[in-house]
Amino acid sequence: MDGLIKHWFEALEKAIPDYKVNARGSKPASGVISKAFFNREFNAEALVYEVGDNTSRDFTILKSKTAAEKLMVLSLEYLNKK
Predict the structure, then answer these.
(1) Which of 11, 21, 22, 74 has the fewest CB atoms within 10 Å of its CB?
(2) In angstroms, what CA-CA distances link 9 with 18, 20, 30, 32?
(3) pTM of the predicted model, to two decimals?
């Protein structure tokens, strides 16, 4: 799913007014963690989804639900194109 993360972030920003995704790249993962496993075994992109400790509960719920919904929509759109 080339471009999935980019399209997912764009969908999140479009769905939540005044929201800007704070995404940062990291060094390639190594060791025994799921991100490293999927990259090594499947050459798949991976990301860690985090919400700040000081983020309000209401916004955390909105952001989490919206992120899940948008990811499912993008996945279904991809599958329907195949």
Answers:
(1) 22
(2) 13, 9, 25, 27
(3) 0.76
18 near 12, Cβ under 8 Å?
Answer: no
| pLDDT tens digits, one per residue of 46-75 | 777 788 889 999 999 999 999 999 999 999
Tokens of 74: 């993008």
Q: What is the DSSP string of 44-60?
A: ---------TTS-HHHH
16 closest CA partner among 54, 50, 75, 59: 59
The answer to whether residues 67 and 10 touch, using CB atoms and an 8 Å cutoff, is no
Q: How far, in Å, are 31, 32, 35, 50 from residue 28 at the CA level?
A: 10, 13, 9, 18
Q: pLDDT (tens digit, 9 = 90+) per residue, 12-42?
A: 999 999 999 988 776 766 667 787 788 788 8
